[in-house]
Design a protein that fits this description.
Elements: H1 3-13, H2 25-38, H3 43-55, H4 59-72, H5 77-89, H6 93-106, H7 111-123, H8 127-140, H9 145-157, H10 161-175, H11 178-181, E1 190-194, E2 197-201, H12 204-221, H13 237-252
Antiparallel strand pairs: 1-2
Helix pairs in contact: 2-3, 3-4, 3-5, 4-5, 5-6, 6-7, 7-8, 8-9, 9-10, 10-12, 12-13
Length: about 260
């Protein structure tokens, strides 16, 4: 590798770096533009641009850059995955499913790709594929936490609360393990949909609050309230109440999807 290629690699690796940890979109854009000046067809630069616009909720522009990234490198799994995410946000569910399938085909060892693919199968009411894909994700590594809670929602949708409870209990146990919760794979935000509403859980306390309320609500539904005291949410009362109301709505509609 020549010095120019090595320098370009370092520039790519530091696109989002900031000494003070602050996100400055203009500075990030300038770094990406420098990469494109050297390599106009660099697929990663277009991937970075897609990420930049997606972070700012400009999903239409983000999708354009993700499309350019995979056009320049058809093996770029994360480009397909990211495009699937923004297609989903734009309501293009069929295209989203196709992108998730492509990403999972290219990187069938990467759990987030499998988890999003399974979720999209569930939205399409393809229950067998959804369950098989979720289980495949857990077989790769049983410490990927989001899958347990997504599987609980899968079994809620099918009207199988006992199975939902089993996955909630396992998920809460792992979530309460500081070493597991701190794994990089478990640091990303969690999103749950209920109709047109979206629940965004971007911190460990919010994830724990959702998990505790979900477990308690499912035990109450099954009349198994003596099996454990509810843990308290480390959130202010308004935020905790909003999450609790979300969980109650989830359980109220248990089994309605089928």
């Amino acid at each position: 590798m020549g010095k120019g290629a090595a320098r370009l690699g370092l520039e790519k690796a530091s696109v989002y770096d900031a000494p003070d940890g602050e996100f400055r979109p203009l500075e990030v854009k300038q770094r990406i533009d420098r990469i494109l000046t050297q390599q106009p067809d660099d697929p990663h630069a277009h991937l970075f641009l897609g990420d930049l616009y997606a972070i700012q909720d400009d999903y239409t522009t983000a999708s354009t850059h993700y499309e350019q990234a995979i056009a320049r490198d058809p093996t770029l799994a994360h480009g397909y995955f990211s495009l699937g995410v923004v297609y989903d946000k734009l309501g293009k569910v069929e295209q989203s499913l196709q992108m998730y399938e492509r990403a999972a085909t290219l990187a069938d060892w990467h759990q987030p790709y499998l988890n999003n693919l399974a979720y999209q199968y569930l939205q399409h009411q393809d229950y067998d594929k959804a369950r098989a894909t979720y289980e495949r994700a857990l077989q790769l590594d049983g410490q990927f936490l989001l899958t347990y809670f997504d599987l609980a929602n899968y079994f809620r949708a099918l009207g199988q609360p006992q199975q939902a409870l089993r996955h909630l209990e396992k998920g809460v146990t792992l979530l309460n393990d500081p070493k597991v919760a701190a794994l990089e794979k478990n640091q990303g935000p969690w999103y749950f949909h209920h109709g047109a509403d979206l629940l965004h859980l971007d911190t460990l306390p919010r994830k724990q609050c959702y998990a505790y309320h979900s477990l308690t609500a499912m035990r109450r539904l099954l009349q198994r309230t003596t099996e454990g005291a509810q843990k308290l949410c480390a959130l202010d009362s308004v935020d905790a109440r909003d999450i609790q109301e979300w969980v109650e709505a989830e359980n109220h509609h248990i089994g309605n999807a089928r």
